[in-house]
């Protein structure tokens, strides 16, 4: 069943509904705007109170350059803003924050370029010229990339090779803390790559990219602060998780697991900072 704009917007707080009404009013009165759609999590039907108001605005080819050159005036006719900036891209994309802290993001597209639009999932607000018919349906991307999986795992162990020098030789616990955070992020990136293809989703949708088991692994990382003991405990725990889930992910995807690198770095960590990584069986189910 086709989703209506009202259904897409249902979970957004009230100020967003007023902002949306003003967007529709301004765009409907401007003949240069040939179509207006909701995008992002709204179009996917997964929006919540933390979602943005994401817009796709189709502008007639002959008016596109002048319209986009003055996009700030267009935005000001809709709402005052605390912040409004253009995002570097091949097409004009903007992001704005209103005085009521509503987040408004938009993309301006030429009518003639809609058949090549990367924004395939959208909810129609209005479409003056039947443009929807020329926008291809979304196609799922490829599955896990073996090369990317191998790169993530290798980068993880490269980062780990530096950890003892940061925490003991330099005694720079802030640098060591940054290394632990980066290692946790690489474990997260591994899980996300294993779950490809994923549907398009916003950058703030961290947990949505994970399975329940993967999320439990990441949520189980021991708490740490800017002190040697807690950083070593957390770091060795993460190493144990990568040793298990990284190898499992590589085997499933047909990627090369860097056994020599992982073994050498793991032995080095045992000899220097100690606190041997938890055994694979202590870290939960394989979630790679």
Summarize the structure in short.
47% of the residues lie in helices and 13% in strands. It has ten helices and six strands; from the N terminus they run ααβαβααββββααααα.
Tell me what the structure shows.
This protein is of the alpha+beta class and 288 residues long. The protein has two domains: 5-134, 2-Layer Sandwich (Beta Polymerase, domain 2), CATH 3.30.460; 146-282. The chain has helices spanning 5-9, 14-28, 40-44, 61-69, 71-78, 146-169, 173-194, 212-219, 228-253, 259-272; strands at residues 33-38, 53-59, 83-87, 92-97, 103-110, 123-127. Strands 3-4-5-2-1-6 form a six-stranded mixed β-sheet. The longest helix is centred in the last third of the chain and has 26 residues, at 228-253. The two termini are 34 Å apart. 34% of the residues are buried.
The biggest sheet amounts to: 6 strands, mixed
Number of strands: 6
Number of folding domains? 2
List the quaternary state of the chains: single chain
Amount of helix: 40-55%
* Strand adjacency order, main sheet: 3-4-5-2-1-6
Beta strand %: 5-15%
Structure class: alpha+beta
**End-to-end CA span:** 34 Å
Number of helices: 10
Q: Look at the structure and give the mean pLDDT.
A: 92
Low-confidence segments, given as residue ranges, are 279-285
Q: What value does the Rg take, in angstroms?
A: 24 Å
């Amino acid at each position: 069943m086709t989703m209506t704009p009202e259904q897409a917007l249902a979970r957004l707080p009230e100020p967003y509904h007023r902002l949306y009404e003003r967007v529709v009013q301004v765009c409907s009165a401007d003949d240069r705007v040939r179509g207006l759609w909701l995008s992002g999590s709204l179009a996917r039907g997964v929006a919540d109170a933390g979602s943005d108001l994401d817009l796709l605005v189709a502008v007639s080819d002959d008016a596109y350059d002048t319209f986009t050159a003055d996009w700030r005036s267009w935005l000001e006719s809709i709402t005052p803003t605390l912040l409004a900036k253009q995002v570097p891209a091949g097409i004009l994309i903007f992001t704005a924050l209103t005085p009521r802290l509503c987040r408004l993001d938009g993309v301006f597209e030429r009518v003639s370029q809609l058949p090549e639009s990367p924004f395939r999932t959208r909810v129609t607000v209005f479409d003056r010229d039947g443009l929807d018919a020329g926008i291809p349906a979304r196609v799922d991307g490829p599955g896990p990339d073996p090369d990317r999986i191998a790169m993530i795992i290798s980068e993880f162990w490269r980062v780990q090779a530096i950890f003892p020098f940061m925490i003991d030789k330099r005694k720079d616990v802030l640098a060591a803390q940054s290394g632990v955070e980066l290692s946790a992020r690489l474990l997260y990136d591994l899980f996300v790559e294993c779950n490809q293809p994923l549907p398009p989703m916003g950058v703030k949708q961290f947990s949505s990219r994970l399975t329940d088991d993967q999320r439990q692994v990441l949520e189980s990382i021991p708490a740490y602060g800017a002190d040697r003991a807690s950083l070593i405990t957390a770091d060795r725990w993460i190493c144990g998780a990568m040793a298990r889930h990284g190898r499992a992910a590589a085997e499933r995807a047909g990627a090369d697991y860097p056994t020599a690198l992982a073994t050498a770095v793991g032995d080095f960590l045992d000899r220097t900072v100690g606190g041997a990584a938890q055994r694979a069986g202590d870290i939960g189910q394989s979630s790679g």
